[in-house]
Amino acid sequence: MSLAEAAANVLIGYAIAVATQVMVFPVFGIHITLADDLRIGLVFLVVSLIRSYMLRRVFERLL
């Protein structure tokens, strides 16, 4: 179940990030294609996964 939870978290986060970019970027004068939005979201997804993994390892060592 932990894997399912992690996968759901990542997928939902990715969808929210891309949707946010689509809505917010134009407000700041940034006009890019949906494909670019998806790629930018993918970069943040990878960074988020690495961050979560590293924090989990740190807390496992502390506890």
Automatic annotation (TrEMBL):
Pfam families: DUF7220 (PF23858). Keywords: Membrane, Transmembrane, Transmembrane helix. It comes from the Bacteria. InterPro entries: DUF7220. The chain crosses the membrane at residues 12-32, 38-55. This is Uncharacterized protein. The lineage of its organism: Bacteria, Pseudomonadati, Pseudomonadota, Alphaproteobacteria, Rhodospirillales.
